[in-house]
Amino acid sequence: DNGLATTYKFIVKRIIQIHIDLEDVEKREVDFKSKLIEWSQKEKTQVEFNMVVDGAVASDKLYEIELLVDRRNVSKASHASKKRAEQLAAEEACTKLFI
Predict the structure, then answer these.
(1) How many CB atoms lie under 10 A from the CB of residue 89?
(2) How many CB atoms lie within 10 A of CB 21?
(3) d(CA 8, CA 13)
(4) CB–CB of 39/68 below 8 Å?
């Protein structure tokens, strides 16, 4: 009766916050690369992170990472940081493979 904003506040305060610490969830970053490597060891598969474009020498300063699982291209990502590009590729692979 009081609108969407009131309903949203009610649900968050009375239901969600009682069971979940939303600030903790927001701050927590999932390490998808580690998660993917653990999964590959458990499933006895091979995971490779290949650098397609090296940001240190590329004109646009972006690293492009290709992720292979059992020599099959599963995902690709680019970012100004090599580590972040690997995380983005691993996140995409996780969503495709098992999450």
Answers:
(1) 26
(2) 11
(3) 9
(4) no
Q: How far apart are CA 94 and CA 75, in angstroms?
A: 9
For 42-76, the pLDDT digits (tens) are: 999 999 999 998 888 877 889 999 999 999 999 99
Token pair 């968050």: residue: 12
Per-residue pLDDT, averaged over 6-32, amounts to: 79
Q: Contact, 53 vs 76, CB < 8 A?
A: no
Q: Is the pLDDT of residue 37 over 60?
A: yes
Max Cα-Cα span within the chain: 60
Query: Which amino acid is residue 14, in one-letter code?
Result: R
Dihedral sign computed on CA atoms, order 52, 57, 60, 63: positive
Q: Rg (Cα) of the chain, in Å, rounded? A: 19
Provide the token pair at 51.
């650098």
Structure tokens at 60: 């646009």
pLDDT of residue 49: 96
